[in-house]
Specification:
It contains 16 helices and twelve strands. The chain has 396 residues and is α/β, with parallel strands linked by helices. The longest helix has 21 residues, at 301-321. This is DEAD/DEAH box helicase.
Length: 396
């Protein structure tokens, strides 16, 4: 094994393995990924078959080292990816234990969105005269992402978000929740309201997590609901909207979240839902990104209803233009003629639309449990003065 990559999550380990394999395929480079939640016996077998690069999570790497299934004496390059996230997840001791087993004569690369003292100590202790490369704050967010916020009461968030989705009709959207319970409840609620949605967080087994991500990438899902940790490092093209159902307590997490959209030269949109007592966090984010979010007016019930009707009409038009679908019409010919004799075309069309579009007055109720509120942050002036170009403005 010539190189070792330490990553905080299974998703990031798998994604890094896939990218490294793609880069090195023509040279015959063997890349293995190891992580918890999957059979360690299969991973040991894969390592025995040979590997040039190993990507893994700290706990599983340390377990394999202790079993003598992972030998590090030939490591030439060590990479610590998302080091601050691994620190937040409590992996510091595991990381130090792994590094202490790697040859001192090596190249070490450490990537971190922030540089807390504990991460600096790793640099001092395990790296020789390291070069510190810092990305300027002005580059933290892309101009291709339109950033909005909506000031909304906690109990009104879900209906506000789903009405916005009805109007925007995002091709691919990611919804961020603060906790695993929140992700589960949002996923269930979105399904009840008719969205093709699935969620990912740390408690899901690896096979299901990978299946959900594959379905999202392939367009079989419209909405992916995720925690910050589960979504770290995801590289999915075509995400048009990011919804921050819960504003992040850590402003760097906001940068990671909205970085899921506005990629490869395509525009994107992020919308953050902010409770009145969370306005201080909004301003902390703005100070970090050096960019002011625009206030957005929530979509009304009527706007949501009209948008859903337009979607239904376009689908009917597409279906009528599809010869395969029209070929099935004949089997209903006799019954259709009977209905046509009893009802007007307008009445039949209205009935079809009523079956297709949910009545806004009879939407199924969705209850989202309240999460523990974030510690209060006083609201100041924020970055950049008055909001420009927004709808709804900023209050309080």
């Amino acid at each position: 094994i010539q190189a070792l990559v330490i990553a905080p999550t299974r998703e990031l380990a798998v994604q890094s393995q896939e990218e490294l394999f793609r880069f090195g395929r023509s040279k015959g480079v063997k890349v293995r990924s190891v992580y918890g939640g999957s059979s360690i016996e299969k991973q040991i077998k894969a390592l025995k078959s040979g590997a040039h690069i190993v990507v893994g999570t700290p706990g599983r790497l340390l377990d394999l080292i202790k079993r003598k299934a992972l030998k590090l004496q030939d490591i030439e390059t060590l990479i610590l990816d998302e080091a601050d996230e691994m620190l937040n997840m409590g992996f510091l001791e595991d990381i130090e234990a792994i590094i202490s087993r790697v040859p001192e004569n090596r190249q070490t690369l450490l990537f971190s969105a922030t540089m807390p003292d504990a991460i600096k100590r790793i640099g001092v202790q395990f790296m020789k005269a390291p070069e510190h490369v810092k990305i300027a704050a002005k580059e933290l967010t892309t101009e291709l992402v339109d950033q909005y916020y909506i000031r909304v009461k906690e109990q009104e968030k879900f209906d506000t978000m789903t009405r916005l989705m009805d109007v925007a009709q995002p091709e691919l959207a990611i919804v961020f929740g603060r906790t695993k319970r929140r992700v589960d409840e949002l996923t269930r609620g979105l399904k009840i309201r008719g969205f093709r949605a699935e969620g990912i967080h740390g408690d899901l087994d690896q096979n299901k997590r990978l299946r959900v991500l594959r379905d999202f990438k392939n367009g079989n899902l419209d909405v992916l609901v995720a925690t910050d940790v589960a979504a770290r490092g995801l590289d999915i093209s075509g995400v048009t909207h990011v919804y921050n159902y819960d504003i992040p307590q850590d402003p760097e997490s906001y940068v990671h979240r909205i970085g899921r959209t506005g990629r490869a030269g395509k525009s994107g949109q992020s919308i953050t839902f902010v409770a009145p007592n969370e306005m201080g966090y909004l301003q902390i984010i703005e100070n970090l990104t050096k960019k002011r979010m625009k206030g957005l007016k929530p979509a009304s019930v009527e706007e949501s209803f009209q948008s859903k009707k337009q979607v239904a009409l376009k689908k009917i038009e597409r279906d009528f233009a599809d010869e395969t679908i029209r070929a099935n019409f004949e089997k209903f010919g006799k019954d259709a003629r009977k209905l046509a004799a009893e009802f007007t075309p307008e009445e039949l069309a209205m009935y079809i639309l009523s079956l297709t579009v949910q009545d806004p007055d009879s939407l199924p109720e969705v209850e989202i449990a309240r999460e523990k509120p974030l510690p209060f942050k006083p609201s100041g002036n924020g970055f950049g003065g008055k909001a420009k170009g927004g709808r709804g403005g900023r209050r309080g």
